[in-house]
Here is the input.
Amino acid sequence: MVENSENNVKEEIAGSGNPEPTEMKEQITAEQVEVSVKDSAEYKELQDKYLRLAAEFDNYKKRMVREYSRALETSADEPIRELLAVIDDFERALAYENSDVQNFRQGVNLIYTKLMEMLAKRGLVKIAGKGEQFDPIYHDAVMQLETDEYEEGKIVEEVQKGYTINGRVLRPARVVVAKRKTGSGLPINDSDKK
Here is the structure.
């Protein structure tokens, strides 16, 4: 009975007009070939675009590296060009061997002023020193001095000037900070502590 049902199914398939499995294989294979050829052309086009973009990006990276290197090389040109004017002034001041001390001092002071103005244009600012409250962000305490002249924590002396550039500390000021005197130097009695 199972054999009869199998025969009936085969007859129905043959009579229904559906293609035989071998015909279907040939049909699918032809469609696959057409799709794969189409995909191959699309694939080649996409691969070509990818390779072009990769080459373009590689060229972009190389160009950026060259431009960055060039910018680093030339970044110091303008500040140094401005410093050349200060060097010229120093050379002129040093050329006058027989000038008196007052004129020499005045010339050096003018050069100093010119240099500080040039640096101020670039964002350099002196950190406040003597008489100001000690701030560990802007000051580096090199010593504490016991004194009654200044409040505790005030700067008594500036050992080395400090500077900020564009709001950042370039170099902290090295300072001497006031400290309260501990006493007269006489021994303290235990009865005084109570």
Remarks:
- Residues 123 and 140 are 21 Å apart (CA to CA).
